[in-house]
Structures are given as C-alpha cells and as structure tokens.
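ugh ok so i messed up the first submission bc i forgot one of the chains. this is the corrected input, ALL of the components this time, i swear. 448 residues overall. if the numbers dont match what u have on ur side tell me asap before i send this to the collaborators (the ones from the other lab, u know who)
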Amino acid sequence: MQTGDGVETDVSRLLRSIDPVDRLALTAPGIDGAMDELGVAITCLPARSPRRRLSRPVFALGLAVLVVVIGGSVATAAILSAHTGRTMPKAQVPIGGPGEELNPAAPDFHSVALQIGADIPYPDGYGKWRDLVISDATDPSGLVSSGALHGWFAMSAFCAWVRDWDHAVAAGDGPAAAQAARTIAKAPDWKAVTDEDPYPDPAAINDPSAEAGTLFGWLLPYRDAVLAADRARVDHLLATGYGDGRCSLYDPAWRARQQREGRP
Amino acid sequence: MRPAQNDRAARFEDLFRRTRIDLLRYLTRRARSPEEAADLLAETYLVAWRRLEAIPAGEEARLWLFGVARNLLKKGTSRTRTAELLVERLAIELRAARQVGEGATEDRTHLVRAALAQLGELDREILMLTAWEGLAPGQIADVIGMSANRVRVRLHRARAKLGRELRPVTPTPHRPAVVSTRAK
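and heres the new structure output, hopefully the right one now
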C-alpha cells in the first residue's frame, strides 16, 4: 500500500506538472510594461476610499467642515454651555452622529461629556480611557454631536473591557474575566450603540478588501471570541487591529507610545 | 507630491516590484480569464495602496497580498475596474502569453484539474498554495486565516483525497495496483 509520503510526493509532483503558469511567459516585456504602467496609475489614485462611516480622524475633519456650514452661531453658545440646544440636522447625522450639537469650546464641556457617558461602564483602572475620549472630542474648532460622543464612549469602554478580559484570563482571574465577559455580551445593546447602529454588521475578518462593516459591527467578532473564551482569537483581533484599529486608538498607552515614536 | 506622499509612493513601488510577478502567477492560476486576472491584480494593489500602512513588512507582505487576492477571487468579478485601459492592456498581454502555452495542454492536466475540482475550495486552495506557490503551512495559515496546525491536517487529508481521486493516473509504475479504502 502506498505510504502517506508516497501519496504526498506523487500528488505534489502531479500538481506541479500541471501548473498553468509554468508554460506562460509572465515575465515577458509586454506584461512587465503593462504592470509598470498599472503600478504608476495606482499611486495616482486617492489613498483613501470613501467609507459610509468615517474613522475618528476623518470624522474630526467632517466636523470641521460642519462648522463652516453652520457658521458663526457657535461663538455665542461657547460662552454659555456645551449644550447648544440644537439637534443635529438630519442630513448631517450619517457623518456627525445623532443628538444635540455640543460645543467643545465651552468651559463645561468636560462635565457635559461625563454626563453623556455616565451610562457606559468602564472596568476599574480604565479611567484614563474615558478621559482620552473627552480629550479627543475637545476640539475647540469643531462641533460634536452628543450621539457621536456617546458612541465613542461605548467603543472605548468596549475595548477597555476586552483588554480587561484578556488580562484577567492571562492572570487566571476567573471572576474578573466573567464580569468582563458579561459586560461585553451586553455592549451591543447599549443605547449608545443602538442609537447609531440598530443592526450591527461586522466586516469580514482577515479580509482587508471587504466592505467596511456598520459603525459598531466590529464589536461582534470580539464579543463572540470572548464568549467562546477564545483568547487566541481575541488577541488576533487586537493584534490585527480589527475594527479599524479602534482598540488601539482608544488605548492611552498605545497613543503615548505612538507619540513617543513620532507617529501621528 | 509632498515628501510623505513621495515616501508612500516609493514604499508602494518597492512592494509592487517585489511581489507583482508572484501575485500575477497566483491570480493567473486561479482566475477564469486573463481579464479577470488583470482586473484582480489591479484591485489587489489598489487595496494595498489604500491600506499600505497595514501591510506587514518583508515576506509577510506577499502573504497579505495573497490573502486579499483570495478574498477578491471569492467575491467574483463584479467589481469596478481600476484604471480600465491599463487593465485591458495587461489582459491582452496575458491572453497572448496564454495562447502560446495552451498548445502544450495534455489530457493529464484535465484529469488532475477535474480531480482538484472534486475537493472543497479550501482544500484545493491549500494544495495549490503548497504545490504552486511553494508556501509552507505556517505561511498558508497567514493567507487563509487559519492556524498552521489546522492547515497541516487539512493538507494531509487533501493530499490523500486527491491521491485517491487520481489513483488511475498517479504514476506508480513500480507498485501493484491497490484498491484503497476510503478514509473518513
């Protein structure tokens, strides 16, 4: 009877013998030239594709544009309170988020932001993560919607719980891991999430070419991995930056490292 | 172009030069037509251009590109063409190269291809990545998003299955014909 090695050798040899490109001159000058031109053409294309929902830095840019559209009415509100009393115009909601327009230049913005995020739980020891959300949103040149801010707290807290679960599992701290898992399981139902994304739909994992998922869709693969107690999968998602790298972006330690290394 | 953009373009160019033949081979082996191969090559590198910062360095960049190309292949060809005229030109060149090679096609090729077609997509891909792209299980794991151990197991089973499918044409002149039992 043929051994496993024999099968391996025969099959591999057969496959190699029918390799369709062996007979093709793929390095012919015509192909080379065509590829040269294609490569140059690609570098002339915009490096960023439009996305239905924008990542945080781009969103900030969107807000800057919004300021121009809305005009100077912010200046008066800034003196009084972060609450402007204005609801985000319907047309702006897909980019700017729902809820009230908030003025980050107002002196009470920090406390208003804390109130908005009050229903979003963070694990113990992750206060800096909440502060980072507020600090990121405190852009005096722009406006931020209460819905977007609420959503950022939700994203940041979710990532904090994922990290907390990861550390708890690594440390063998069962109760802490269980508490983190319970919170992570509920996260997709947080109001901050459902207000902006009632039907979260994740982008495919390991598919950089896939269409972007919905705004909070990326939570689901993390949640599923945690609920499956699959630490390797969680670590893989974190390491590959699944979810447009948000779990790094919201991590103050990661941001500090980036700054030290002179990266934007 | 600003300095940062220049750096980006230079990095892309380096990646493109290092990997384009391997990627073209990968796509030509799997695409249904030269047009599809050319289109997917352009789409894959467009993804690479847009996500340049996410591409790992060194050899892993090639595996990353294979992963993107594989996903694009699975999605089919209903995509917007990038730089359409240039893609068309590449397709014409590929078609010309294919016409030269087609004369050498043998019956055995058809038999092996038919046997390959009996396998599941993933098993087929693992076999092709091994035999044609020359990748090791750990590298295949990176391309298809599976653990190296699972790749090894699937590779072993896929080889055995293909071996059984090919038994009549497998060159075993020094061994008596054996009727194999089907493994699980």
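quick check: Chain A touches chain B through 46 residues (CB under 8 Å). that seems consistent at least. Strands of chain A lie at 83-87, 100-102, 144-145.
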